[in-house]
Amino acid sequence: MPSGIGLTRGVCFDLQAAVPYIPHGATKESRMNYRRLGKTELMVSEIGFGAEWMERKTPEEGAAVTRRFSQAGVNVLDCWMPEPEVRSNLGAAIASERDRWIIQGHIGSTWQNGQYVRTRDMDRVKPAFEDLLERLGTDHVELGMIHYVDSLAEFDGIMQGDFMTYAKELQASGTIGHIGLSTHSPVVARAAATSGSLPARRGRGRPPRRAASRPSCSA
To answer: I want to staple 110 with a disulfide (CB 3.0 to 4.6 A). Which of 35, 77, 104, 128 is the partner?
Structure first.
């Protein structure tokens, strides 16, 4: 099978061909396919757990959903949500099997005055990311995602400014394994793909209607 894109509820990864692989915690009966993520060493499930819908769920409901994904062989967890309760509930849900999860933790998603705020203000960005780690009960995430970049001007500013410097510092310290980026813009996704600096891109969009039509985030 040729390399291509993986779509998990609108999430796009640069993926290599599927290979036989059973991650820690999964069973042969799960029948999940795994692919190497871009140029990283990460083997990711073709289906991911986009935990956005864990908002307004009880800790018990969140744990049950997380457990079911785990049993099915899913090993990618995306957490962009800044709401403290959601982060804490997810942390509790994965506490007993943290090592089997590949976590996408977003940098730049903050909680201010009871509301989600996307920001590049480093005085807000840094404590928000530290809060994510603390509430997830971990000292690192496998993918540190630059959160929600939807214009080329913003992308260029991030790549050349303090935000990217911070992301690289996190990577150098081992706090994040790889730097990625999330966007709703195919133009930004292509710029990220061709920059050579970002092994993972996350984009929202509909799956292609025909096999010949592929989202540009696969580039």
So the answer is: 128
Question: pTM here?
Answer: 0.80
What whole-number distance in Å separates Cα of residue 5 and Cα of residue 206? 13
Work out whether the CA dihedral 71, 27, 9, 166 comes out positive or negative. positive
Rounded Cα gap, residues 14 and 143, in angstroms: 13
CA–CA distance, 99 with 4 (Å, rounded to integer): 27
Q: Of the candidates 147, 52, 145, which has an alpha carbon nearest to the alpha carbon of residue 102?
A: 145
Structure tokens at 161: 């400014």
Scan for tokens 């509909």, then name that residue.
Answer: 206
Q: Say if strands 200-203 and 115-118 run parallel, antiparallel, or are unpaired.
A: unpaired
| Angle subtended at Cα 185 by Cα 17 and Cα 164, rounded to the nearest 5 degrees | 85
Say if CB 49 and CB 77 are below 8 A apart: yes
pLDDT digits (tens, 9 = 90+) for 49-105: 999 889 889 999 999 999 999 999 999 999 999 999 999 999 999 999 999 999 999
What is the rounded CA–CA span in Å between residue 155 and residue 151? 6
Nearest one of 144, 128, 125 to 202, comparing CA atoms: 144
Give me the pLDDT at residue 160, please: 94
| Side-chain half-sphere exposure of 60, counting CA atoms within 13 A | 0
Model confidence pLDDT, tens digit, residues 179-191: 999 999 999 999 9
DSSP 39: T
